[in-house]
Amino acid sequence: MDALGVVVNPIAGMGGRVGLKGTDGKLTEARERGAEPRAPERARDALTTFSRHAPDIPVYTAAGIMGEFAARDAGLEPRVVYDPRDEPERVGKSVDTPPDPTVDPADAETTAADTRRAVRALLEAGVDLVLFVGGDGTAVDVAGVLEEQEQAQAQAQEQEQAQAQEQEQEQTPMLGVPAGVKIYSSVFAVTPRDAGRIAAEFDRVESREVNDIDEDAYRAGEVRSELKAVVPVPVAPDVQSSKQLSSGSVDALAAGFAREVEPGRTYVFGPGGTVGEIESELGIEPSPLGVDVWRAGSTDSEVEGDGDTDGHLLASDAAEADILDVLELPATVVVSPIGGQGVIFGRGNHQLSPAVLERADDIVVVADEEKLAEIATLRVDTDDEAVNEELRGWQRVRTGRFTTRLVKVV
């Protein structure tokens, strides 16, 4: 590889910890809830790893928070090929007017259109890989520009009467650094550091799917996934497969778990159908894609008021702050790995933040046998590497009423 292109969606993932299940159309509300950007830090982590493995490969990027800052923080000297402050709709100036030096690029409000413009500029600069930082929505924007490139090449090819197959192989590949709430596409590395290493070392690509889901439906607890594009992606074990949207029966698992709840213990139930079955067995109305906090009642008394028969629902569809407000020891976090990915923290459950995990004194991982059979290892990708390290090792996964399996967390 002769040149790397980098583009960062600075608002990606901001809706996660505050319980919005996405940032599309919800940026103002996310900020009002106290959301903070996470994409720039994850971009820096990826580029720090990249710089260690490929220190001599030039990096092209967009100005400010769209990549330049992260690259400089990683010790690189990036070549800026796009500046969002150039766009006339921001300050009513012509395209030929240079950026206003009095405007801090960190304050520039960026949009999906900026992402697409930045990717076009990277392609014009001749990069060999587009490393993007965001979620599925950002992946769709990047893939759209790559498909434009392919169509333009095909048109030029027709004029030159070249062979279609040879030209098709020239489409620039893309690789995602996971930073968004929605990570359903198979174009993402598992962690930012994996992304940096893969970008530096890959030698071949294969076609992968870009998927996106309807965020309004997602917030309502329904997953509607749609194939948006098929693009070339670097081949490596640390590039995830597409997230599976269904799992097998977990009735026995749920029944066994419900029989063993500890009186007075607080349970933080993560998203997903498997954990939702456990909640239903306990008489709780689950938030299918959210986090619920429930405290088990005593063995000889019943706490009234929230529809559950032997406990008290403390928070439903909770944000990180809501969880921390009601979390008291003893406390157990209950999660299920993402099918096809094996990630237990850092995908679709950003509310279960490092602060939440550090406060809880127990973590239970549950999964049906069919799902677990497709996962070689479990993975963690929180924003705190110290917490990630604490979580790594062997984890007992409950797979049935009486059965468990030991699976390594990496």
What does this structure look like?
The strands form four sheets. The protein has a seven-stranded mixed beta sheet, sandwiched between helices. It has 410 residues and is α/β, with parallel strands linked by helices. The chain has 15 helices and 16 strands. The radius of gyration is 23 Å and the shape is elongated. The chain is 32% helix and 20% strand. Helix 3 links the parallel strand 2 and strand 3. It folds into two domains: 231 residues, no CATH class; 159 residues, no CATH class. This is ATP-NAD/AcoX kinase. One of its GO terms (molecular function) is NAD+ kinase activity.
Features:
single chain; 410 residues; alpha/beta; seven-stranded mixed sheet; 16 strands
- Shape estimate: elongated
Kindly report the average pLDDT value: 82
Radius of gyration over all CA atoms, rounded: 23 Å
The proportion of strand residues reads: 15-25%
Low-confidence stretches: 91-99, 164-169, 300-309
State the major sheet: 7 strands, mixed
Number of domains: 2
Treating each run of at least 4 consecutive H or I residues as one helix, how many helices? 15
Strand arrangement in the largest pleated sheet: 10-9-8-11-13-15-16
Q: Which structural class best describes the helix and strand composition?
A: alpha/beta
N- to C-terminal distance = 28 Å
Q: Helical percent range?
A: 25-40%
Number of strands: 16
